[in-house]
Amino acid sequence: MRLAFPLLFLVLLVPIAVRCADPAPGRSLSRSLAITIDDLPYASAGGVEDAGALADVRRVNEAVLAALARHKAPAVGFVNESRLQVPGERDERVAILQRWVEAGMVLGNHTFSHLRLQDTPLERYQDDIVRGDVVTRLIGKDGETDAPLFFRYPFNSTGPTREVKEAVQSFLRARGYRVAPFTVEHADYAFDKVHVRARRSGDRELERRVGEAYLDHLDVQLGFFEMLSLETFGREIPQILLIHVNEINAAHLDEMLSRIEARGYRFVTLEEAMKDPAYATPDEYVGAWGISWLHRWTVGLGKPLRLREEADPPAWILQ
């Protein structure tokens, strides 16, 4: 996933971000958005090696599922099965995944241990894919033989070379997987680190500031990718949002979904969003950044890459 370009770009892009943050007044909207949530059962601010305390994992998952239910929003949760393998807690952590299935959500494979393909040998990465669907495939299918099987690349790193990228795509197809793209993300992992720090230190004012900045950055990012969709395809395509099952979304997902609805969106399944012809556009991007598919498609369509125009989170969050 993309992290900050030099902060000079942030300063230069504030006017652009503000202009594209809100829909045109009086405009009739018919927008749709699918929600995808990474790093189940818990995305710790401490990093991929931290599986989180069981009580926190339960609390965050219940809060996220409750917010999705209130807005009747379907979602795909992408699982790292290494985070299930906590001695003495395996059954409880698998039961948390079962709650997602019972709530009508879909589970997808996010590899076993969240390896970055950019710097992982191909055979090791393929092995991590296989290890990552032992539990997920079993309970995610839940007896439905036609349930979709989705895979999401950790860090959205799709390969350091075209050859590696094509090899992994072929491997995934052979196992029945569809690659889950995304079009919108708003760096929730960066905001989450500051939010967790504020929460643990009891700094309620900082916690409030982080929450407000997080919601505002969502509007900025939605506006940017709505604009990029129009410029790329001449229309607004169904968007796919990427977030994580973490503390900041446990606290603010309800407000996020309300903001999305206020922009004229209805929530759809990932499968429905991907029926749009735009999602058949080839992804020709090869590089180190885990960028939006709206950026990736510009490569294959021969359009200029607009990556440097995408706004970073506020400087005080990044610092």
What is the element layout, followed by pairings?
Layout: H1 7-19, E1 31-40, H2 54-70, E2 75-79, H3 90-102, E3 106-109, H4 122-131, H5 134-141, E4 150-151, H6 162-174, E5 178-179, E6 184-185, H7 188-201, H8 204-233, E7 239-244, H9 247-262, E8 265-268, H10 270-273, H11 293-300, H12 315-318
Parallel strand pairs: 1-2, 1-7, 1-8, 2-3, 4-5, 6-7
Helix pairs in contact: 1-8, 2-3, 2-9, 3-5, 7-8, 8-9, 8-11
Tell me what the structure shows.
This protein is of the alpha/beta class. Strands 1, 2, 3, 6, 7 and 8 form a six-stranded parallel β-sheet that branches. It has helices at 7-19, 54-70, 90-102, 122-131, 134-141, 162-174, 188-201, 204-233, 247-262, 270-273, 293-300, 315-318; strands at residues 31-40, 75-79, 106-109, 150-151, 178-179, 184-185, 239-244, 265-268. The protein is built from twelve helices and eight strands. Residues 1-28 have low confidence and may be disordered. It starts with 6 loop residues before the first helix and ends with a helix. Helix content is 47%, strand content 11%. Strand 4, helix 6 (162-174) and strand 5 (178-179) form a beta-alpha-beta unit.
